[in-house]
Amino acid sequence: MPAGIYGSSWYNVQEVPSNYAFPEEDRPGQLPPVCHTLPIIDFGKAIDADLVNQIIKASQEYGFFQVINHGVSDDIIRDTADIFKEFFELPVKTSRNSRGRSNWAYASSTSFNRDGIHLWRENIKHPCHPLKECMQQWPENPARYREVVSTYLTEVRKFGNTILNLICKGIGLEVGYFDRFSEIGLLNVNSYPPCPDPSLTLGILRHHDPSLITILYQGNVPGLQVMKDEKWIAVGAMPNAFVVNIGNQLEIFSNGLLKSAEHRAVTNSSEARLSIAALISPSPDCIVEPAQALVTELNPARYKPTMYKEFVHCSRAFGDDTEAMQRA
Ligand SMILES: O=C(O)CCC(=O)C(=O)O
Ligand SMILES: [Fe+2]
To answer: Which residues form the Fe2OG dioxygenase domain (predicted)?
Structure first.
């Protein structure tokens, strides 16, 4: 590790401190090799029935897929990743802005505490809808944060709509079904510094996303693991690809046709890793329930209707920040 870059930070250590080592049963242990069967879908080719089939098959088998040639420019992505790297390097990440108002939450590694054990991660999250209003309360530092991140999210939103509409086609819902009541509800950005022993630590605990879909950028450093057939599989990292996953709200709308898979993030010993997760979610007052078109006498509704904000509240979907994020 080059001297000076990591300074005297909490992660600049030779050994994992005991308050970062998870108990035996939760530790990742030996990391599995990258799974080469997780679908990589190329949007640079024709957007046709075959592409729709690939998306649906991946969403049923894995709940995850990667997309290359997705149309969001490399420059916008690079700019956004650089802004977040700069943000995490700031010596002070206070969420009070000059007018005393903010809608974002920064979590240091010790903000998370389960039985005295911390995640090997720092995090920032904030709401993103309606974008023009929300962004006025995002971080003021780095100076270009609001401009760069809002540009990124506008592009990601377009890409997310394309995915949702292809999914609609694939499962027999009218195109545009989600347009009226979906939004980029939350941006969740994770910074995982290099860790001296990744077998002991976790970047994010196992969880399902409380979204319709999540569009994740992870750069070229792997660390995402997905639960498949009761085993963790490792998702490969492809520069500039997006990882897309089905969240539990789309599992419900699809009446269980599509699968929201459990996932987690592990650390690595050589490189810092950044992941940018944009959660496209139902709007807070939306009633989430299986779509009428997918409920029949032979295939009755498998989930009860719930108002999305109630779901978020009851499941504490955004961890300790759940209440703050809902008030924003
Ligand atoms: O860092 C990752 O790859 C996973 C991030 C994630 O699952 C999340 O932010 O919800
Ligand atoms: Fe997630």
So the answer is: 180-282
Is the CB of residue 195 below 6 angstroms from any atom belonging to ligand 1? no
Return the domain boundaries, the chain. 30-287
More confident residue, 1 or 175: 175
Mind listing the pLDDT tens digit for each residue in 122-133?
999 999 999 999
- Answer whether 281 contacts ligand 1 (Cβ < 6 A): no
**How many CA atoms, within 13 angstroms, populate the side-chain half-sphere of residue 11?**
31
Q: What is the mean pLDDT of residues 76-100?
A: 85
CATH class, 30-287 region: mainly beta
Q: Return the best residue to mutate from 192, 214, 260, 318 for the ligand 1 pocket (most ligand atoms within 8 A of CB).
A: 214
Which of ligand 1's atoms lies nearest the C-alpha of 188? 9
User: What is the arithmetic mean of pLDDT over 28-32?
Assistant: 94
- Report the nearest atom of ligand 1 relative to the CA of 190: 1
> Is the pLDDT assigned to residue 179 strictly greater than 70?
yes
- Write down the ipTM of this complex: 0.99
Entry pTM: 0.96
Site to probe by mutation for ligand 1, drawn from 119, 216, 271, 274 as the one with most ligand atoms within 8 Å of Cβ, is 216
Does an H or E element contain 107, and which?
strand 105-107
